[in-house]
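Backbone shape codes
____________________
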Amino acid sequence: MGAKHSDALVFFGATGDLAFKKIFPSLQGLIKDEGFDRPIIGVSRSASLDKLKKRAQESLEQHGDLDEDAFQKLTELLRAVQGNYDDQGTYEKLRQELGQAERPLHYLAIPPSMFGEVSEGLAKSGCADKAR
């Protein structure tokens, strides 16, 4: 039986230092080198989609050697969910943003003390069903 691949990537802490220094450059590399073409959803307390795109560009200019073609693809794939991790409405917005995605990959670039709260929110909203 073949393994089913994730059909969306969700990362929490989209405006944090880890995203800025490591995740955005890695996403650009994944797109450039591997042809990644799934929705990328950044979840944060404060970023609209426009702010998240600007943050990604600044990140790549400082830490990832901005590649115009790969960055263009990244901005096309990028989505944003703005909300607090302790608000179930944030996870409902995430569920809507996932659309038809059934097997999202969730990456928690947040303090470990928040893992339980985020995991619970994902489970209650159905975002954790069949997820990684």
Remarks:
- Strands lie at 8-12, 40-44, 78-82, 104-108.
- The longest strand covers residues 8-12.
- The helical segments are 17-34, 49-63, 68-77, 88-98, 115-125.
- Residues 10 and 100 are 14 Å apart (CA to CA).
